[in-house]
């Protein structure tokens, strides 16, 4: 916004005719840009809050077949996306071969392998260790973001990395430091890679397809993959009738998380870019902490509250300076 105003001011100072009208247009554009930026921040933070709260919800699915549950979740979400696409009357866009590869990789890593690696990590380490490793996502996006961002405003590297470091440090404090084996750390790092790829692989697709089509494609691609993996792993036991509590948890994962949070996150990612939007991932452990407290699962201590303050400071500083 400051750049727009400075350019308008320079033109006005040169004595160009109609400078009052041009200045007004510049101010209006600056205000519109500020409102849009704020909207993207709110959307991204809300998406990550929904994701953070899902950890407490997912605790009610520990006895349900994991791959079967994920297949049900993404089947429902894909059906909802299809209805939305149809009702909005969006024109059909045919992906190129390269775009099909990107969509398939995005679905395989960000959806399917992410869930598989989470389970594998939790068999060898605790949730705190896994959460602390995955909380490094803002730093990964700050480093890798420029590699996939071809145009637009790029954050300055030093403020972006510094703010991401603050968010990561605060998230680790909120999440806590656990313990685990070397295998658990390896799977946690693989989970982190999949978490980052969920955003990085989407960046080149969003300008052409938009958040709705990208979300619809990746969820639809994930369903047969999960069904095949589930049959190979659990056979006919991959699916069973869920209990009332499990049904409510699956509905939360399918609708608010997959449909709602996917759309909000990709909208924010497209508007802010991976480096700036990545800072908002720090909202995940904060929301998880708040959800646990609200559901009576745990009460945040002084250290966790201090971590929340560091996360907020990192996000605010990063968005302001980058």
Automatic annotation (TrEMBL):
Record bears the keyword Membrane: yes
Coiled-coil regions listed: none
Start and end residues of each stretch annotated as Disordered: 8-30
Species lineage: Bacteria, Bacillati, Actinomycetota, Actinomycetes, Catenulisporales
Sequence intervals crossing the membrane: 100-122, 128-148, 160-178, 184-207, 214-232, 244-265, 277-296, 302-321
InterPro entries according to UniProt: EamA_dom, EmrE-like
Name recorded for this polypeptide: EamA domain-containing protein
GO cellular component: membrane
Pfam family, one: EamA
Family classification: Belongs to the EamA transporter family.
Domain of life: Bacteria
Keywords for the protein's UniProt record, in alphabetical order: Membrane, Transmembrane, Transmembrane helix
Residue intervals of the EamA domain: 43-169, 183-317
């Amino acid at each position: 916004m400051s750049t727009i105003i400075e350019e308008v001011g320079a033109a006005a100072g040169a004595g160009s005719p109609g400078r009052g009208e041009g200045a007004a247009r510049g101010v209006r554009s600056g205000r519109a840009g500020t409102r849009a930026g704020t909207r993207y921040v709110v959307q991204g933070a809300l998406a990550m809050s929904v994701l953070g709260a899902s950890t407490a919800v997912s605790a009610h699915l520990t006895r349900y077949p994991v791959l079967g549950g994920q297949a049900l979740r993404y089947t429902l979400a894909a059906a909802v996306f299809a209805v939305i696409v149809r009702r909005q009357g969006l024109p059909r866009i045919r992906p190129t071969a390269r775009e099909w590869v990107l969509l398939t990789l995005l679905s395989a890593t960000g959806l399917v392998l992410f869930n598989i690696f989470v389970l594998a990590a939790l068999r060898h380490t605790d949730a705190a260790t896994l959460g602390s490793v995955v909380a490094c996502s803002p730093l990964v996006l700050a480093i890798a973001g420029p590699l996939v961002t071809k145009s637009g405003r790029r954050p300055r590297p030093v403020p972006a990395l510094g703010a991401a470091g603050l968010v990561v440090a605060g998230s680790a404090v909120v999440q806590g430091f656990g313990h685990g084996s070397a295998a658990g750390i390896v799977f946690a790092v693989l989970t982190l890679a999949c978490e980052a790829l969920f955003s990085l692989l989407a960046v080149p697709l969003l300008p052409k397809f938009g958040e709705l089509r990208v979300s619809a494609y990746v969820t639809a691609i994930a369903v047969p993959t999960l069904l095949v993996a589930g049959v190979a792993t659990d056979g006919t036991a991959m699916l069973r009738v869920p209990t009332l509590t499990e049904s409510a948890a699956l509905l939360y994962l399918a609708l608010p998380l997959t449909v709602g949070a996917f759309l909000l996150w990709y909208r924010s990612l497209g508007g802010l870019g991976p480096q700036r939007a990545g800072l908002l991932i720090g909202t995940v452990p904060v929301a998880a902490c708040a959800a646990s407290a609200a559901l009576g699962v745990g009460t945040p201590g002084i250290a966790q509250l201090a971590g929340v303050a560091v996360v907020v400071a990192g996000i605010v500083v990063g968005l302001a300076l980058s």
